């Protein structure tokens, strides 16, 4: 069979959609989004839950130092997160988008070449950013020398994670979310295992230096990265023959030089850096302004301010990120699918895909956020300790999570359709709004004020993005408004049932008990979840999201 005959073969002309699997050719974009979202949601949720559960023994072993330790952990991690995003440089999302683009036009070899060039670039940025983080720690600690130790421990992870993240982006470009999800879970498993082992021996058994304990807990990021990278290497071995086949049977009609590939990666990546670090940037604004504002308007000691900061920046945020991870999973899934539609010039498909993404977001995020708000008291008690302040902040932060989650989804949509620069401009506007409201809100409401200014800033960004998408591609607002109205109704029902169950159980249970808090959470979640599941199935609302699976669930639960 000659070269042209092989290219004309339907198998070799595997345009776009998940070419690593032989049976994915007939999948619709909605089915691919659901499958990808399922993988990424499972990986993200399990990772977040694992990343939250470790807090229970960790806090116990750190004892009276737990809030101080959380504050130090957060200060170091916020700075590290920014440098990590800079090291990754938006390359994974850019690679995902561009690989999907090249796959859609049967240029698989070019996409694989792009990945190899991206590896060299990400390795270089990782080394540079790790060096800056390690050597620049004294200039980044904002007057807290303990932060230096944490940043030195975290710098090692910056060396490895860019390569791991880039490889995840490559698989996502093929719309294969399984490798990313499993790698993410293994990464978290290895990280948490190292954290707990070191915390137990340093603090739980030997009652050692809590700062050293925190530094080892942050060094765990490096251990986790090694585990996640090994999983991806195994997947590469699994798919190596298929990748070689696709490369051999590419159209090879595009000729792009190495320098042009690097320029393409950088041009695509820079906006991803800013958008990908959006929430982290807002957290850094809080970190570098909260203490200064509070020192000006109050006479609280540094210990009290550290405890306040730990409550909203670490404690509550750690639990709320479980909910936001739902949106993150959907966001990762939508980028390559939208890029493929954009490549084909299919504006109708883009409109449908955007609408479906928003509906899926509402279907999962709104009840999850309201549910977290309803169980905020037992959740905070379980993971930390009984605290009225902590409960109130977690409850408020749960509502803010809806705004942050929506930004995560629609900013990814903007990147998927190639509107990166405009998304950055909108985010800059939101950042200015955050700065404007930061001082008065923190001065009036202290810790909650930071969350209020964040919510206002991201609300402005969300409005600007949605307005633009509607102007360019049109959104089915009738369908969205009808769907979301029902979701909000059922979600408030879920919230009401969960909060009534929580308050009712606490009439005869000990609110300070962690074991009883777990029981309260279990009962409230089951009752609230059953209510939501029943009504979305009975009203046929679930059919909009999961299609034929909804009918099977109705038969299973005997719902008519």
Which structural traits does this protein have?
mainly alpha; Poly_Biosynth_Transport; transmembrane helix; cell membrane; 22 helices; transmembrane; membrane; disordered N terminus
Please provide a written account of the structure.
The chain crosses the membrane at residues 38-65, 77-96, 117-137, 149-171, 192-212, 218-237, 265-285, 319-338, 358-376, 396-414, 421-437, 443-466, 487-509, 515-537. It is a multi-pass membrane protein. Residues 1-29 are annotated as: Disordered. It is found in: Cell membrane. It holds the Pfam family Polysacc_synt. The chain has 560 residues and is mostly helical. It has two domains: 56-269, no CATH class; 277-560, no CATH class. It contains 22 helices and no strands. Helix 4 (66-88) packs across helix 6, helix 11 runs parallel beside helix 17 (420-445) and helix 16 runs parallel beside helix 18. The longest helix has 43 residues, at 302-344. The radius of gyration is 24 Å and the shape is globular. It starts with a helix and ends with a helix. The model is unreliable at 1-17 (pLDDT under 50).
Please outline what is shown here.
With 560 residues, the protein is mostly helical. It has 2 domains: 56-269, no CATH class; 277-560, no CATH class.
- For the record, give the distance between the C-alpha atoms at the N and C termini, rounded to a whole number: 56 Å
The helix/strand series, from N terminus to C terminus, equals: HHHHHHHHHHHHHHHHHHHHHH
Mean pLDDT across residues:
84
Class by SSE composition: mainly alpha
- Biggest sheet descriptor: none
Kindly provide the radius of gyration, computed on alpha-carbon positions and rounded to a whole number of angstroms.
24 Å
How many extended strands? 0
What count of helical segments does DSSP give? 22
Q: In percent, how much strand structure appears in the residues?
A: under 5%
Low-confidence sequence ranges: 1-17
Question: Can you tell me the number of structural domains?
Answer: 2
